[in-house]
Design goal:
The complex is a heterodimer of chains A (about 750) and B (about 150).
Chain A: H1 3-22, H2 29-32, E1 36-37, E2 41-45, E3 54-57, E4 60-62, E5 68-72, H3 81-93, E6 100-104, H4 109-112, H5 127-154, E7 161-164, E8 167-170, E9 175-178, H6 179-187, H7 216-220, E10 236-241, E11 249-254, H8 256-260, E12 264-270, E13 273-278, H9 281-289, E14 292-296, H10 305-315, E15 321-326, H11 329-334, E16 338-346, E17 358-363, E18 368-372, H12 377-388, E19 395-399, H13 415-428, E20 436-439, H14 442-447, E21 455-463, E22 469-479, H15 488-491, H16 498-501, E23 515-523, H17 537-555, H18 559-565, H19 572-585, E24 596-604, E25 607-617, E26 623-633, H20 640-660, E27 665-666, E28 669-670, E29 688-693, H21 711-723, H22 732-737
Parallel strand pairs in A: 5-6, 10-20, 18-19, 22-23, 26-29
Antiparallel strand pairs in A: 1-2, 3-4, 4-5, 7-8, 8-9, 10-13, 11-14, 12-13, 15-23, 16-21, 17-18, 17-20, 21-22, 24-25, 25-26, 27-28
Chain B: E1 2-7, E2 10-15, H1 22-29, E3 48-51, E4 54-57, E5 70-72, H2 80-91, H3 101-114, H4 120-127, H5 137-152
Helix pairs in contact in B: 2-3, 2-5, 3-4
The chains are: A alpha+beta (about 750), B alpha+beta (about 150).
Chain lengths: ~750, ~150
């Protein structure tokens, strides 16, 4: 079972949680594409003249003005999905790329579900894979109708008609028409149910850099509209006082001083805390600072991160649940020439997207609106509806452009949607039905939980006399990101949450190791956790690839040669990216003086990536990463330049976290608070990145996450080659600087 | 308190508490939402605007200290350097989530107005106060070099 399959299964399982609550809601045709036009502003209906549009399916609208509007069912939060989906559809439509516009879909689960989840949502690098055939067929269907309309108009055979760059032509008669000229007539025809899509050899747009990102112009001149930017008549701003320890609840509060702050209009208690509602952010912030809340902390989590780590280290001494096993690793290791053991420790990590969490809720007399960077729209709709006291079909979720997420905007409890809706409801109960915007400060974000869980890994392996790995034991200790959520029943199978072990249980080298065992100790704490860009791979890639290099050094073997030797024929795509990266990085030649190279290879979300980092040692004792050469196989490369961008970004995101980041908790209180103590990689720390894409005819797989896992182990391996020191406790700063 | 602010070449009269950071006056009073909130402690640069042609973090600048100095935001950019930077940002396909990019663009313009042909070290010094969680840094660097060329040509 592949890691991504399991995660999709889990999310599909989530449908059962929401299904009974979300069916039966359909927008009128006029509203279908007239949802929030992200980038156009929330109040601008994005589809003018929709009645005239040719709308053969849920995903494409063509107006008499030749503009082709592609409806995205996935949020755009930086990963390039708007452009990717439009590229797929425009390819099959043979549209002129300059006429393409993209808008966000309405919250309509029946039409816009992620086919991998069974409900609306974006995650697990599934946006392109699940939409691949759907958007191809949507484009091909629209094209077939335009061709049929032209054949009808010109009284010629459809088979003699060609389409290119938004123009339909009949060569024999010399007739041609633009899409817009055929839109009305095409709109009268019944869509065919079975249309052929192109053979990939016929692609003219996919695989080129013609399809530039549709969202970049507005993001380069300040006109892109995010949730934070929404301004509605009468709108107030709310900041929420949340518990200082996870699991605490409000006992009582004194808002006397808060109400004296000019601009504060209300203080209301809601399930997640006490909300200070004001005419401006600053008034809400000062009002919240002045608020005195007494918390009931009896049921709260009082342990600190060091306490939890100590407990995990003790738990790591005892066998957990079986994840994967073949052969007899115990006997194999007992008979080995050399035996190596290592323990690794990973901290809690915050996602810290640039735009802190926010949402706008408006509870009207006849329904409600929620504007948010919603990553799980069906779930957020369900959660908000419950808080509003409405049936879900009365809640319209407007998916906004979001300033990053990295997993943070996909929460099983719909946290910010719940907050916004519950505050709007509390105000409406007082007769105030104006819209309210909930904003999180950076401190709220870093201290607000939903972290990448802390993990401890123990590995033990044996080498035979020829330097081959004969036995491998790998124990993982940590929280499940979904235990205790509504998804647990669907996610956790035989006691195993696959997102805790993905990349370890299905280790690529395992078929060549005679005795192999992976087990999992799933822990429980009061610290709320969540998937973080690349999820389980964030820690499994590190431990497996760093430990592999330790074995290579012990065996006196070259790390690339040994990896290739340990990959069987079934892992040809692993081998290909590793060989390509090694070739392009000049593996085997001497690096510049004072530098060493390190390699890591990892598959995640169906994509295969090898990275080779070139590293020196800085004056501060920390690795300085100069250059990363990356080879990637993500199937058919839809937007090559966006693949390069996502790899660059994944490397920067993963490197910053590995070098610097740790959410420190003391006696249950999160000490870390903002970018001064939760460091982000900065421009002078960013390596040069060289991306090589493997040509492939395989179906496209994700690219938003797979660039992240290999960077930390590649740097650790280079650092170990340079210094002899293996960093087994992340972040590097904690191991190398004691910080 | 009533303040007269010079923003993007126009004078605006705004009512605000003296300690209100300029960021929130720009965003909420003047509707200039291109300037973003990221940290509130001058660590991330998402709120960067120009005050008398110098880049400042508007999230920590109380409105009472602005005085008569000219404020320039992403919405008020004009001139050959601004045009070159915006063109280079699109041409280089810099943005991912895009939330930090107003601040990046403001810092880049301030740099190019000071140093028309910056070195990589100049770029590091001028830009390392602007965080991009998407890590678009390699493209920011390329776009600044491209913009420098663009202004000259």
């Amino acid at each position: 079972m592949s890691a991504s399959t399991s995660r999709r299964d889990f999310l599909r399982g989530g449908l059962a949680f929401g299904a009974g609550l979300v069916v039966g809601f359909h927008w009128s045709r006029g509203h279908l594409a007239a949802s929030t036009g992200a980038g156009l502003g929330p109040m601008v209906p994005s589809s003018h003249a929709i009645g005239d549009a040719f709308a053969p399916n849920a995903f494409v609208r063509i107006g008499s003005d030749d503009i082709v509007r592609v409806v995205s069912k996935h949020i755009e939060f930086g990963q390039g999905t708007y452009t990717g989906l439009a590229t797929i559809l425009a390819e099959e439509l043979d549209a002129d790329w300059t006429t393409i516009r993209v808008e966000s879909s309405a919250s309509d689960t029946a039409r816009y579900a992620n086919l991998a989840f069974g409900q609306m949502g974006t995650g697990g690098s599934t946006a392109i894979p699940n939409s691949w055939m759907q958007f191809r067929q949507a484009g091909a269907t629209a094209r077939a109708l335009l061709v049929a309309a032209a054949a009808d108009a010109w009284d010629v055979s459809a088979s003699e008609i060609s389409v290119s760059q938004g123009v339909v032509s009949h060569a024999a008669s010399g007739r041609s028409a633009r899409f817009g000229e055929l839109a009305d007539r095409a709109g009268q025809l019944e869509p065919p149910t079975d249309v052929a899509v192109k053979d990939p050899s016929e692609f003219t747009l996919i695989g080129t850099d013609t399809a530039r990102r549709v969202d970049i112009p507005a993001k380069s001149d300040g006109t892109a509209i995010f949730t934070a930017d929404i301004q509605l008549p009468g709108m107030t701003t709310a900041l929420l006082a949340r518990p200082p320890r996870f699991g605490a609840t409000v006992a009582s509060f004194d808002a006397t001083d808060t109400r004296k702050v000019p601009g504060v209009v209300d203080v209301v208690e809601v399930p997640r805390g006490v909300a200070v509602v004001a005419e401006s952010f600053w008034a809400a912030k000062k009002g919240r600072d002045a608020l005195r809340v007494t918390w009931n902390e009896r049921a709260a989590e009082w342990r600190g991160s060091d306490d939890i780590a100590r407990e995990y280290r003790a738990l790591a001494q005892h066998r957990g649940m079986k994840v994967a096993r073949h052969g007899d690793p115990e006997t194999a290791i007992d008979g080995a020439t050399q035996v190596l053991e290592a323990e690794f420790e990973f901290p809690f990590l915050a996602h810290a997207p640039m735009e802190p969490l926010d949402a706008v809720a408006h509870l009207r007399e006849d329904g409600a609106d929620l504007w948010a960077g919603s990553q799980l729209q069906t779930l957020d709709q369900t959660v908000a509806a419950a808080a509003f006291g409405l049936p879900p079909e009365k809640v319209a979720v407007h998916t906004m452009l979001a300033g990053g997420s990295f997993g943070r905007r996909a929460t099983p409890d719909g946290d910010v949607a719940s907050e916004a809706a519950s505050i709007a409801k509390a105000l409406a109960d007082q007769g105030k039905r104006n819209p309210v915007k909930v904003m999180w400060t950076r401190e709220d974000d870093v201290r607000g939980g939903r972290y990448r869980p802390m993990y401890i890994h123990r590995l033990r392996a044996g080498l035979d006399a020829s330097g081959g790995i004969v036995g491998w034991q790998h124990r993982i200790v940590g929280q499940s990101v979904q235990r205790g959520t509504p998804f647990e029943a669907f996610l956790v199978r035989n006691g195993i949450d696959n997102t805790s072990v993905e990349g370890a249980g299905n280790l690529a080298y395992a078929p060549k190791i005679s005795g192999f065992d992976v087990d999992l100790v799933t822990t429980q704490t009061g610290i709320p956790v969540l998937w973080w860009r690349s999820v389980g791979h964030t820690h499994t890639a590190y431990t497996t690839e760093v430990f592999f290099d330790e074995l290579a050094r012990a065996a006196g073997r070259d790390p690339v040669e040994m990896r290739l030797a340990m990959l069987d024929e079934a892992h040809a795509r692993h081998r290909a990216v590793l060989e390509l990266a090694a070739d392009k990085a000049g593996w085997g030649t001497d690096p510049p003086a004072g530098r060493a190279r390190g390699v890591a290879l990892h598959e995640s979300f169906g994509s295969f990536i090898a990275q080779i980092a070139e590293v020196s040692l800085g004056d501060d004792g920390m690795p300085r990463v100069h250059k990363v050469v990356c080879a990637v196989d993500c199937g058919i490369a839809i937007n090559p330049d966006n693949i390069r961008a996502q790899i660059e970004g994944g490397i920067g995101y993963g490197l910053g976290a590995a070098l610097f980041d740790e959410v420190v908790i003391e006696s249950g209180r999160v000490v870390t608070s903002n970018f001064h103590d939760y460091r982000s990689l900065r421009i002078h720390e960013m390596p040069a990145v060289e991306v090589h894409i493997v040509a492939s005819g395989e179906a496209p797989t994700g690219i938003g996450e797979p660039g992240v896992p290999p960077i930390a182990p590649a740097v650790a391996n280079a650092h170990a080659a340079l210094t002899g020191t293996v960093v087994r406790r992340l972040p590097f700063s904690r191991s190398l600087q004691g910080a | 308190m009533q303040y007269e602010l010079r923003v993007n070449g126009e004078t605006h009269s705004v009512e605000a508490e003296p300690d209100t950071p300029l960021l929130w006056v720009l965003r909420e009073e003047l509707g200039l939402s291109g300037t973003k909130f990221g940290c509130g402690i001058a660590q991330c640069g998402a709120c960067t605007v120009h005050l008398a042609d110098r880049p400042v973090r508007s999230c920590v600048l109380p409105v009472e200290y602005v005085g008569e100095k000219e404020i320039r935001t992403i919405e008020g950019l004009e001139g050959p350097v601004a045009d070159a930077v915006r063109d280079a940002w699109v041409e280089t396909q810099v943005a991912q989530c895009g939330y930090c990019q107003s601040g990046q663009v403001m810092s880049a313009i301030a740099l190019l107005e000071q140093i028309p042909t910056p070195s990589d070290d100049d770029i590091d010094r001028a830009m390392n106060g602007n965080i991009c969680r998407c890590a678009t840094y390699p493209r920011i660097r390329r776009a600044i070099h491209a913009a420098a060329e663009g202004v000259k040509s």
